[in-house]
């Protein structure tokens, strides 16, 4: 049995989380509900491009896993096209030498890997596959409309106590327990985690697994920029975009047209120099709740809604067009260097986490140098690079343009996730980032929050936090 649908829903934040939430809310609640989507910056949020000499490059979230089924579905349903992330050879630097270097010959790579690390790369591949296999259960649950009231319940339904345990242990502890050697972890795994999350092996084991999935083959991106998914979702959801910064949310009693006094949420926002507000039946917050990133306060809630203090790590992405100083990484000159991505080990004295050649978002081909042999490189570093540092990395450069991010949570297990239900009809999506931050994670959180809001509105408690879903759905034909 269904209640009358809500009149108005607010979604705060038009990144991939907020726009996909609007899309799923429209699917569940139907065409009559009015959905307002608040955004204080650009649609896309941490999915953004940077334009350099007339070419656009991904400056935020750039790669998508081949098994990220929500992102895949969006691209298909919204009529977008994909490009494959360009390969290129990868090396790992410890600041003095390259501790690992890929060859363009497949067989040489296999021999090198076995020589240096035995069968650990294969075992690691299997470990990640096993985590991914369980993770994929979420798509089955969500396609059957099941929802979860907390991130912990969601993860438990996917991988049981093992998945919850991964939030409580460091990635290092998790992999040491699984029998991987220090050399392999230092030289192969820590550098991937520095590239993807700018952090050491002290992150939680779950985000570590996601990070390794982010180094799988078959990664892809959206032609024209990943942020196009957000603008297309916004359009498809037929939501009303309000350009403004939400300042606070307050619960108040309003008398609706029916004459009934109803508890509603007043969303107060600033647009230009004006302060305005609107009343909503349901509110979804799709931005990290902390002072630096969203600065939203919750007034007069009973019980009060706590202030969240999740610290987000700063990452600086710098785009440099220039000729690499290959001798910063190896003894070879540039014309014999051949690597297009260099990762760094944790103990490296280098001031960057990674550096790699990038292609424009419209190019499906391998990146091409300009006539003088210069490529466009992207570095990730914890701090802004100084001119002196840039001149260490490059023989010469034409430009260096930076984009600074509060990129992802600073992971420090045990990682306890914030609640999804902040109040009766007030939901929070970005708590999922405490398990792992990635585009697909936000899309999963958005689908879950839309289903949760729908079932709670209609009193469908049997669709929330069902135990043993995997077994139940296995027997369902
Ligand atoms: C440099 C970088 C590289 C990354 N690479 C990858 C990658 O390759 N693959 C991957 O899967 N993930 C990647 N990620 C992570 C991914 O980008 C994020 O997990 C994802 O984009 C988060 O989306 P979101 O919608 O949850 O949050 P956001 O994108 O942060 O969206 C929140 C939105 O809310 C708005 N907002 C905030 N406060 C208010 C307010 N008070 N009022 C109104 N609006 C407000 C913000 O302006 C923002 O647009 C990367 C992130 C960064 C920074
Ligand atoms: C959620 C699952 C199962 C998989 C996602 C895997 C994935 C794509 C992880 C990447 C996460 C991330 C935050 C990457 C940041 S750096 C990305 C890229 N290599 C770049 O150079 O910009």
From TrEMBL:
GO terms for cellular component: lysosome; very-low-density lipoprotein particle. Keywords: FAD, Flavoprotein, Glycoprotein, Lysosome, Oxidoreductase, Signal. Residues 100-466 form the Prenylcysteine lyase domain. It comes from Myotis lucifugus (Little brown bat). Belongs to the prenylcysteine oxidase family. The gene is PCYOX1. Gene3D superfamilies: FAD/NAD(P)-binding domain (3.50.50.60). Pfam families: NAD_binding_8, Prenylcys_lyase. Its main location: other. It is an enzyme of class 1 (oxidoreductase). The keyword Transcription does not apply. It is found in: Lysosome. It catalyses: S-(2E,6E)-farnesyl-L-cysteine + O2 + H2O = (2E,6E)-farnesal + L-cysteine + H2O2; [(2E,6E,10E)-geranylgeranyl]-L-cysteine + O2 + H2O = (2E,6E,10E)-geranylgeranial + L-cysteine + H2O2; an S-polyprenyl-L-cysteine + O2 + H2O = a polyprenal + L-cysteine + H2O2. One of its GO terms (molecular function) is prenylcysteine oxidase activity. The keyword Flavoprotein applies. Its cofactor is FAD. Prenylcysteine oxidase that cleaves the thioether bond of prenyl-L-cysteines, such as farnesylcysteine and geranylgeranylcysteine. Only active against free prenylcysteines and not prenylcysteine residues within prenylated proteins or peptides. Involved in the final step in the degradation of prenylated proteins, by degrading prenylcysteines after the protein has been degraded. This is Prenylcysteine oxidase 1. Its EC number is 1.8.3.5. GO terms for biological process: prenylated protein catabolic process; prenylcysteine catabolic process.
């Amino acid at each position: 049995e269904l209640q009358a649908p809500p009149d108005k829903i607010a979604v705060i934040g038009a990144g991939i989380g907020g726009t996909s939430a609007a899309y799923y809310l429209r699917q569940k609640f139907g065409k009559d509900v009015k959905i307002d989507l608040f955004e204080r910056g650009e649609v896309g949020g941490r999915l953004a491009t940077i334009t350099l000499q007339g070419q656009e490059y991904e400056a935020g979230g750039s790669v998508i896993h081949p098994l990220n089924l929500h992102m895949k579905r969006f691209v298909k349903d919204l009529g977008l096209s994909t490009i494959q992330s360009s390969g290129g050879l990868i090396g790992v630097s410890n600041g003095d030498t390259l501790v690992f270097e890929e060859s363009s010959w497949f067989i040489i790579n296999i021999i090198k890997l076995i020589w240096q690390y035995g069968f650990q790369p294969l075992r690691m591949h299997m470990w990640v596959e096993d985590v991914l296999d369980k993770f994929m259960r979420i798509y089955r649950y969500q396609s059957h409309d099941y929802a979860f009231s907390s991130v912990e319940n969601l993860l438990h339904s996917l991988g049981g106590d093992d998945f919850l345990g991964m939030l409580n242990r460091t990635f290092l502890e998790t992999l040491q327990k699984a029998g991987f050697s220090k050399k392999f972890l230092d030289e192969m795994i820590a550098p991937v985690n520095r590239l993807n999350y700018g952090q050491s092996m002290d992150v939680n084991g779950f985000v570590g697994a996601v990070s390794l999935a982010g180094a799988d083959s078959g990664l892809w991106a959206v032609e024209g920029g990943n942020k196009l998914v957000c603008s297309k979702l916004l359009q498809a959801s037929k939501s009303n975009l309000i350009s403004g910064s939400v300042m606070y949310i307050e619960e108040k009693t309003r008398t609706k047209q029916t004459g009934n006094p109803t508890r509603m949420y007043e969303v107060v926002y600033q647009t230009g120099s004006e302060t305005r507000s609107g009343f909503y039946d349901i509110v979804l917050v799709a931005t990290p709740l902390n002072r630096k990133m969203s600065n939203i306060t919750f007034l007069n809630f009973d019980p009060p809604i706590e202030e969240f203090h999740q610290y987000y790590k700063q990452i600086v992405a710098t785009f440099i067009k220039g000729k690499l100083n290959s001798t910063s990484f190896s003894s070879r000159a540039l014309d014999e260097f051949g690597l297009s991505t260099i990762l760094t080990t944790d103990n490296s004295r280098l001031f960057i986490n990674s550096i790699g050649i990038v292609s424009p978002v419209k190019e499906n081909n391998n990146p091409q140098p300009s006539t003088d042999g210069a490529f466009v490189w992207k570095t990730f570093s914890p701090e802004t690079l100084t001119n002196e540092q840039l001149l260490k990395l490059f023989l010469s450069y034409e430009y260096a343009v930076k984009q600074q991010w509060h990129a992802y949570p600073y992971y420090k297990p045990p990682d306890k996730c914030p609640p999804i239900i902040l109040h009766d009809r007030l939901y929070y999506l970005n708590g999922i980032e405490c398990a792992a931050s990635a585009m697909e994670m936000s899309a999963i959180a958005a689908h879950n929050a839309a289903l949760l809001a729908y079932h709670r509105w209609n009193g469908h408690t049997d669709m929330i936090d069902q135990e043993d879903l995997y077994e139940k759905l296995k027997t369902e034909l």
